[in-house]
């Protein structure tokens, strides 16, 4: 299939930098796969899924090296758990790849199309971005997910994982490349960025013109570095200082359930709630219930004076400590929550606008007017009305897969699926049209 | 109207930098106008249009200062012409503002909406970007256009024009702010970036978190500087090394007409053609006609050896000089064109991919297969089939207005109208939904 399409020649000699060499190869591969229809891309994805299962033993062995090294380094068990690949997990990853194969192909979709008064036909059509760079931490499943999503959307991908997962990532990329090549597509569409040093990340960030977009996934420090230093366009992802606001009129039981789900369903993720704001008119009724439920869930409450006062008056069993300004901006990712009382919905909105990372904010209210006002005024990727913050997720939104959650306003905002891995081009067709 | 909506408090004390002060004020104004419906925004736009005409004399007088200064500096007459404002031109600018008022409001448009299997309603809704920074050269009409488009799309705008138009821009922004304030919207939604030094541009480029996007409009040097140095997300615009490719099978008269229109209809614009590529099978028939027409249009041809050979053999009256590698990448913006013969459509595509700035490429062909292949393989903002490159333009595409032409792949590609000045947010609505 690939030989039907011309691909740009590689420059000769290639640049000395292994990172730039990889980028050149990715660009050539991207030009080859960009015009492909769906079938050859899906065939490559199914080949990857099969290969992951056929070669599971190789992958588990390579992963065991990383896990042993992590143990020797005294790595936290939660991190080791995310790093570990088992037969079951690999089967689940392979199934995810098959699901991506089953998703509609975004490439070729006509977003807008019309005929101008002069008869010229205008079509705006989705096309791949080109070369996508992903910088991520020690989760080898991201290696496979990102490769599958980029291939499906006609992009080449440069993967820059954590050095703590290097053996796993090398093996996974070897398996993927073999499968891609075996399916007749250019293996260079999926590459690990060579080099484990920070310099290789720096080179990637400066490969403007070769790499079309960088998506950093991971801790806030990594994301800030990439955002500030990259000359390649970046999509900022993931930091989530999410808020739950309980309005003056709210179903108390619903509010408790949404609060606990938002905070404690899974604390280490970006769509977990980190701050609770309560309208003063409902504080006396709601806070005792909320504090008891938070205590049951093992959550420490970093409270403003008004929340502290309620806790003391009630003799709450909750662990309550005074909140500082720092608490309002902290993404705990732990069994902690900041909590405060506000005088109005507008004050809640002002607090959120000041401190939020712009990920997800929820309101619990029975008032249609309050719901409408909150959704109008809050400017975050997702505003949830009477629903948990935990729904901000590509899988939950029905995208079938997710490459990350954009917290920026340009290009994509919120969970990013396949369409967010595309750009568009205009095709204008006439029969000799010139401008008068 | 504006007092209905809370706006974030300005920090106290304000930062010392006048540029950052302006950015803070813009951010506060943006929060106020973002949730506004269409009517108050349109009323402000109509007030601006009326004020431009009522206060025409003031504007012409201020502009006369700039023009006098430009003459004293020995500025090129073409530049002075673009700088000059007359009563007629101001009336035309005011009419453009009225046209923007008549365009549909992109804010609030539901891009996608569906109900999940669990009953949660998901809506993806257009919202303003926030604060838009525009850096541009000596065209005072851009001041008004940009302000109108940003206001209509609910954004605040920071305008950084050329120092050579400073008196005109100050007066125009004064007139606009008076009208905006008079219509009950915050005047700080439209501000001139204080300071004429390069440092003020540097500050603007580092105002990440305050400014949501920077759009540089102007020369290639300006755009490159902003793209490379800004930590604020940038939309790259404008450079156009556009190609016209005449395929093996083409209507010769149509090809000549499209070539001449693409090259010479207006040479100083980004959608003018800069390179002609001709398939070898049609070169002997087409090139004599093309060279004669280019000569008539006063265009100098920078020719590869095969085009030179035809010119010599025919004794063409065209001015033909040898092309160097530099010619293939030059955006002349003058009565010059590079011209070469290619062996195949694939070679034309490879040439274009290597040298293009990715703006607009045209194919002239009678072959449906060639048209399809060219549009699939060429990766530029716009691919024109049997039409002039000159159609890549927001006005021509029917957008009603244009803030620039993006030549990057992220966020927007090609002519940018009102929807391209927006982001989106998700609104998810349940009745107590939590994640299981």
UniProtKB/TrEMBL annotation, chains A, B:
Signal peptide: none annotated. Pfam families: Aldedh (PF00171). Keywords: Amino-acid biosynthesis, Cytoplasm, NADP, Oxidoreductase, Proline biosynthesis. One of its GO terms (molecular function) is glutamate-5-semialdehyde dehydrogenase activity. One of its GO terms (cellular component) is cytoplasm. It is found in: Cytoplasm. Its main location: cytoplasm. CDD domains: ALDH_F18-19_ProA-GPR. Its EC number is 1.2.1.41. InterPro entries: Ald_DH/histidinol_DH, Ald_DH_C, Ald_DH_N, Aldehyde_DH_dom, G-glutamylP_reductase_CS, Glu-5-SA_DH, GPR_dom. Residues 19-308 form the Aldehyde dehydrogenase domain. It catalyses: L-glutamate 5-semialdehyde + phosphate + NADP(+) = L-glutamyl 5-phosphate + NADPH + H(+). Pathway: Amino-acid biosynthesis; L-proline biosynthesis; L-glutamate 5-semialdehyde from L-glutamate: step 2/2. GO terms for biological process: L-proline biosynthetic process. Belongs to the gamma-glutamyl phosphate reductase family. NCBIfam families: PRK00197.1 (NF001221), proA (TIGR00407). Catalyzes the NADPH-dependent reduction of L-glutamate 5-phosphate into L-glutamate 5-semialdehyde and phosphate. The product spontaneously undergoes cyclization to form 1-pyrroline-5-carboxylate. This is Gamma-glutamyl phosphate reductase. The gene is proA.
